[in-house]
Each structure stands twice: as structure tokens, then as C-alpha cells.
Amino acid sequence: MMENNKHSNAFFSVKGHPFLTRTPKFSKGTGLENQQFLELSSAEFSAFVAKRDAIHFQQTKAFGDLQQSLGRVPLYFAVKNGADILAAILITLVKVRFGYLAEVHGNPYFSQAFSDNEELITGLTAVLKKRGVLKLVIHSNKKVAQYADDWEKTVACNQDLSDFYTQLGFAEGQLNAFEKDFRYNYGKNLSEFETFDQLQQSFSENALRNIKKAQKFGIVIEELGYDELAEFKKVIDEAGERRNFATRDLAYYQSAFKAYGEQVKFVTAKLNFVNYSATIEKESETLLKAMAKLQSQPENDKNLNKLKQFQAQFASLAKRKKEAVALAQEYGDKDVILAAAQFFIMPNEVLYMFSGMYSQFAQFSAPFLIQANMMRYAFEHKIDFYNFLGVNAPDKSDQGVLKFKQNFKGFIWQSSGNYELPINPLLNKMTEFFKTLVG
């Protein structure tokens, strides 16, 4: 599935920063005397980011606050010309043997002028060396390729990204196992649809059927508050244990909630089984009346076929009613969480993060309704891109996550890798050697 350029511009472009969407063609820089490299306060960095059209959720003050709550040290740097910030970056320091590792998550806010970026990295290198940093790693997350649902490559972009980092002194770094597994992502461009109905009709038939089913059941979508995050963790932990993936502790979710505020949502799908049972009862009564009316009419092939359909539906309802009564007796007259998911909200994209569903409620199709509701939220808030994030690489046998996301008819995209710059080459080599000894 080919996407038009509207997607690229909506998601990856920033006004005045063409490097983010095409081969970089940098100017020689401003050369102004009052241009300088300096450390920013978190408030200065936040004010700069707030003016941008495209924001990476990991290059924000909120992410810095989150990292600080996890025991890391966030630092903000920029190249300024007077009051104007030309290039900026958020790094976090992590303690390692013999010193610190400096990491940049997401895409720094580079300048159109290459010399500004050189000044940023040169100044950063000097500061980090004084702070005992061994190595700087940028976990770049730029789109380098796009694929159709059958893994046919349809777009190649940012092909000169490695050359750009090489010119700044970086080398391509190694990906860890987690990064290798999730170098591929899934996304959908929302800006090409004029109405939400058009957007929803672009989903697969399976998605539309499951969304309609979940709505018919009476499932409601609600956000959790800070004091309810333990309930969110329970859902994620159950899914993690069942599907064998690592989960976060409660403190992480609480820290993310505090740091991101309105820019993070912990969304749940809930169902009251007493109400659900009553809905099935009413549906059964309506069907019985329709069957009685049909039986009073002349007998012909058309009516007989319709009666058989009604009888099959009634048998299915009877089975569901039995299950509903049992669930109502077990859980009582209250809303029960079926599934949950975490989302980050940026001006240019909604990001689908952690999610889980209680396995005993799989038949209710709750995750489909969560996605449909969040896509509606994105569309109504004029957010152009819906980022489903990670899917397994094509050589992996487990493609269940990809298959679920493909129900919403987007595209697969491949992100760029890591770029590394030794700050203290000797100590960095010693650290790498030590790691090989201890495994």
C-alpha cells in the first residue's frame, strides 16, 4: 500500500527543517558572532519544543522528567543565536562501569545548517567528557523504508542518514535484542480522510465486525486516573506472563502519568456483565417475537430459510446468555476491565504503547474498540499520524501483533538504528572488553 507524500510531511517534517523528510542539503551556517553552544534549563527546552509542528515524545521535558524519576540524569543542550534556538537535544546519563553512558532517545532537533549541528555535537562532546561520559548513543527513530502489508518495499527515505551522522563523527552502533525485534513498526496516515466515517470504513471487514460487536455488547471506553494505575498494571502483567514479554513496574506508569500529564492516556475497555446479560435477554425476546411472526406467515422457501437463520441466532444467543449469567454472578453489578492500553499524545502523532487483555475476555473484542476510539480522538484533534509502533521482523514466526494492527489498514515502516560517538575512547574500549569477559 503506497502512501502519498501528505503522510511524510505530516509525520516527519518540521517547518524550516527539510532534513527530516529528504536528503539533507545543509547550508554553511549563520556564522554570527553571538551564536553559542550552551546548556538549557528544562523550561527553556520545553518552550522551544512547544513551538514545533513535529515533536518526538522522547525529546520532551516530560521524557526528561520521566527519566529523572527512574534515577537517570536528563540534560538539555542547544546552539543559540541570541534568543533563537537553532538546534537542541535532550540526553540522559546512565551510570555504567568506569563512568556514564549518554543516551539520546528519539530524533534530536537538528538545524538546517550543518555547521550548527557540528557546533552542537562538538560542544556536547566537550561537556560530556568533563562529566565522565564514555560514549554517546543516539537511538535514532527516523523512517528509512516503508512496506505494504505483504512486506513489499514501497518507499525508501532518509537514505543519507548514516552519512549525516558519519560527518558528525558517529558510527553505526549495534542494536540490542529488543531493538532488533522492534525495528519495524506499523502506522496509519489519518490526514487523507475528510471524515471519521471515511477513516473507519478504511478498516478491514474483520475490524469493522469486531468493533460493531464490541459496541453491541455495551463495552465502554474510559481513562484511568493516577490512583487506578495499579488496575492497568494488572492487565499488562497478565498479558506479559501469558505472551512472555517484560512489563514495567507500577512506579513507571505513575511517573509517566505525572510527567506527561494530558499527553499520556491509560485507556480501558470495561463491561458491566449484569447489563450485558440484560441486553442479551432483550435481544432474545425480540428474536422470539420475530420468529413467532414469521411462523404465522405462509410457508415458503424464503420464510423457511429466514426461520432457520433466526433459530441459529437464537441458539447462539442462548449460549451467550448462559455465559453472561455466569459472568454476572461472578463479577456482580460493576464495570469490569476487559483490556487496557497506554497512549502518548503529541501534536503530530498518537503513539500506541503498552497494552494487554485478560484472556478470559477475548471473545468481547475490546482491543478493537480501544483502537477505534483512540483513532477517533486523533482524527477529531487533527493529529495526522497514528503510530501503532512495534511489530516483529518478517523473519520472526510470531506475527500476531502485526496481524492485529493490519486490521486497521496502515503500512509497515522501518526505523533507523543507533549511532555511537566515543567520548572517552580508551575507557569505552575497556568497558566493552569487560562486558565480553563477564558475558
UniProtKB/TrEMBL annotation:
Which keywords annotate this record? Answer: Acyltransferase, Cell shape, Cell wall biogenesis/degradation, Cytoplasm, Peptidoglycan synthesis, Transferase
Enzyme superclass (EC):
transferase
Q: A Pfam family name for this chain?
A: FemAB
User: Any keyword Cytoplasm?
Assistant: yes
At the top level, the lineage of the source is: Bacteria
Catalyzed reactions per annotation: beta-D-GlcNAc-(1->4)-Mur2Ac(oyl-L-Ala-D-isoglutaminyl-L-Lys-(N(6)-Gly)-D-Ala-D-Ala)-di-trans,octa-cis-undecaprenyl diphosphate + 2 glycyl-tRNA(Gly) = MurNAc-L-Ala-D-isoglutaminyl-L-Lys-(N(6)-tri-Gly)-D-Ala-D-Ala-diphospho-di-trans,octa-cis-undecaprenyl-GlcNAc + 2 tRNA(Gly) + 2 H(+)
**Any one Gene Ontology molecular-function term assigned to this protein's record:** nucleotide binding
**Biological-process GO terms, alphabetical:** cell wall organization; peptidoglycan biosynthetic process; regulation of cell shape
Q: What is its EC number?
A: 2.3.2.17
Q: Which PROSITE patterns match?
A: FEMABX
Question: InterPro entries attached here?
Answer: Acyl_CoA_acyltransferase, FEMABX, PG_Glycine_Bridge_Synth, tRNA-bd_arm
Q: Which PANTHER family match?
A: AMINOACYLTRANSFERASE FEMA (PTHR36174:SF2), LIPID II:GLYCINE GLYCYLTRANSFERASE (PTHR36174)
User: Which family does the record assign?
Assistant: Belongs to the FemABX family.
What protein name does the entry list?
A: Aminoacyltransferase FemA
| Organism of derivation | Pseudolactococcus hodotermopsidis
